[in-house]
Design goal:
Length: 364
């Protein structure tokens, strides 16, 4: 988006592509190590040490996002309802996002102050959002023809790649399922990777693409590598194709699965920016739009809390093994280091791996 603001479409493409490329190669290597060499005691111990750190990282994310998003008791209600809906009622994530946006839209008229993102005047009950200065060089007008043009280009780029996968490997192949699922997941990634991870994990584990422990490892790897956290989807695609390779070798299938996943995950991002950004900028002061987005943001806190509870339960109380005291203590210490001492996440994950190796190989 920043690249688009500064230098138009070419700037957006350059910024987006270069943001992702370095982490593609890093995650490919780490994904291979995680699945091909997990039987080596040192590797298994390192990944064991990562898991409780990941739990602490997700809890810290809940606290950080909640502090920014939940400015009123009403918004706490949005988060609570979202948590109950996804954790207890198992309502799919996309429906929660839609409902929270609708809720914000409907409640904005009655609670204008709670949904105001600018200066609220209690006498007139009006919210004023200061217009940002037009410093960018981009001047794309929000027209229907522009929207159709961008959609046509992006859909063409999507159908070419996914079509080749369908024709070459069949619609029942793992690669085809991966391409379609992550295309859909990309369109509901509201609130960042943390918000959609429980949705992705549930589908991936139920499809036999990977185990819960492997998902926790992937999240830890994504946290400690360059690029966005959503690169964990590439890890999921790699392991899914590796475990269900069809007629391909596991490594070949894994690489294809990883690259396809990354492609279909980020292509919609380019579509949203190039097609939607002109409209969003033109509607920056629209109170109804801001109210809907505020509702979504508050609900995302509840969704991420679900992720923290889910991961925490799986790591600290692993199935059939009882309480893992090391995991509990490690998670508490990690959360303390993140919250009180603000130790960077990229240092916490490797530190957790080293401590896990020491615990497993020399103490336990």
């Amino acid at each position: 988006y920043i690249g688009w603001r500064m230098h138009g479409t070419l700037g957006g493409i350059t910024a987006g592509v270069l943001f992702v490329i370095p982490s593609i190669f890093v995650m490919l290597l780490l994904s291979y190590l995680a699945v091909a060499h997990i039987d080596i005691p040192a590797v298994a111990a390192a990944f064991y040490g990562i898991q409780p750190v990941v739990v602490a990282v997700v809890i810290e994310a809940v606290l950080r996002i909640g502090k920014k998003a939940l400015k009123h008791s009403l918004l706490y209600g949005f988060a609570a309802v979202a948590f109950v809906a996804i954790f207890f009622l198992k309502i799919p994530f996309p429906y929660i996002i839609f409902a929270s946006a609708l809720g914000g839209l409907l409640m904005q008229g009655r609670f204008p102050k709670e949904f105001c993102k600018g200066d609220f005047d209690p006498q007139t009950r009006e919210c004023t959002i200061k217009d940002e200065p037009e410093n960018g060089k981009n001047r794309t007008k929000p027209t229907l023809s522009h929207l159709v043009k961008v959609f046509s280009i992006c859909f063409g780029l999507w159908i070419v790649v996914v079509g080749v996968i369908w024709i070459g490997f069949g619609h029942t192949s793992t690669l085809s399922h991966i391409a379609l699922f992550f295309s859909k997941a990309a369109f509901v990634t509201f609130g960042g990777a943390y918000a959609v991870l429980s949705y992705i994990t549930e589908v991936a584990v139920s499809n036999g693409w990977l185990t819960m422990k492997q998902m926790l490892i992937g999240l830890g790897l994504a946290e400690s590598t360059p690029g966005p956290l959503i690169m964990v989807t590439q890890y999921v695609g790699f392991l899914g194709a590796w475990h269900l390779p069809g007629e391909l070798t596991p490594l070949t299938a894994g690489i294809l699965g990883a690259l396809i996943t990354t492609y279909v995950t980020f292509l919609p991002c380019f579509f949203f920016i190039f097609a939607g950004a002109p409209f969003i900028e033109a509607m920056a002061g629209n109170q109804r739009l801001q109210a809907a987005l505020t509702g979504v943001t508050a609900a995302v806190v509840g969704v991420v809390l679900n992720l923290a509870v889910w991961f925490g339960y799986k790591v600290i109380l692993p199935s059939g093994e009882g309480l893992d005291v090391y995991a509990l203590v490690s998670a508490i210490i990690s959360l303390l280091l993140l919250q009180k001492y603000h130790v960077p996440i990229q240092y916490m994950v490797p530190l957790g791996a080293v401590v896990g190796m020491i615990w497993k190989l020399f103490i336990l």
